[in-house]
Amino acid sequence: MTKSRVILSMLSLALVGTTGAAWYFASQARTSDQIAQESSAPRDSTVGVRVEEGELVDVESLTGQLERTEGRDVLGPESVAGTSKAIVTDIPVESGDQVDNGALLLEVSGRPVFALAGEVDVYRDFVEGETSGDDVRQLQTALSWIYGTPVTGNFDARTAADVRKFYQSSGYSVMEESQGDSGSPEDDPGEVDGDSDAHSTRVTIPASEIVFLSSMPMSVSEVHAEVNDPSGQNPALSLASGEWQAAFELTPEVANEIRGQGSDWTYELSGGAIKGQEIEDYTLEERTVQGDNDMGEPREQTKEFLIAPIDSDDLAEGAAPGSPQTLEIVKARSDENALIVPVSALWTTGDKSMVTVLDENNEEIRQVQVETSLRSGGRTVIVVVDGTLEAGERVAVARRDGSHA
How far is 321 from 273, CA to CA, in rounded Å? Predict the structure, then answer.
């Protein structure tokens, strides 16, 4: 074969291949009308679920927190003698800690703030050999539980000696002043047994270093301050005492329901510091709380709370004011072997409620007339009126329209 004939043959084969490919793709092309005519619409289908047998409970779950009936904020001093400014330098307590007589609550600019038992707040400095009165008796009574300090009403040498021991036990020096001195911490001169006139300095307790608490023991409900925060401007700590209780905020709808039917319901502490305990005694209480208006601006709001008393003996270890607690309000319970279906399974004809029973292929078998009772969480208890229906059978809850598939 000559070279020209070879080239001619190759061109003929290429032309045939190109023509065949063009014919194939042309044969596969369809207009939109052809595609619509050749395609069959999907079949309608029914969604079914099985009928359950069990107990349906209508329950309202509320989340709240533990609290105590009495509270006290501790600010800390606004100024500390011998320092340029009052800042928080140590916080030796944390939320949940118990506060007893003599506890160290706070350190501000290197100086302590102690808690002592007493009915009247401190309102002046205590000065050895000078201060006397009922507030001194209160101080001596608190110290007597620790050192047996005599309660005389006079800040005498024995009281001063016990104050030195008290400060030293926490790692601090007492404030001592001499004539013309405004008071500064000095090295501990040792216990003094004689009259205060026998030495050149006298013990003083600045009012800023004592917090008298009328109820003890208390507990730290919240620590607000951090080290280096300014002292005296905002509460550094919140303390709590008194009876234990749990508070649950209510919506207006739930509050109205409780007032109307609440006496017939069951209230159970279901999660948190207490679990599985029913409460029989509760109160509704209005409180003013901080919230936001429609513009997102802070404003005070009045909210209603359910208050449930709690026995402290039932509290879990580590429970503290502010700990979360869950309350379940059981409004109604069905029988344990009730038939339960989704509410979406119901349809009506006239004044009758019906369900559609399906086979395993979701094909309709029959219609069953039912009555409903308790509803909760999108499900309802049913009782068969006309027909038969058993647990495990399938009922229709929705239909898929094939024309929109």
Answer: 11
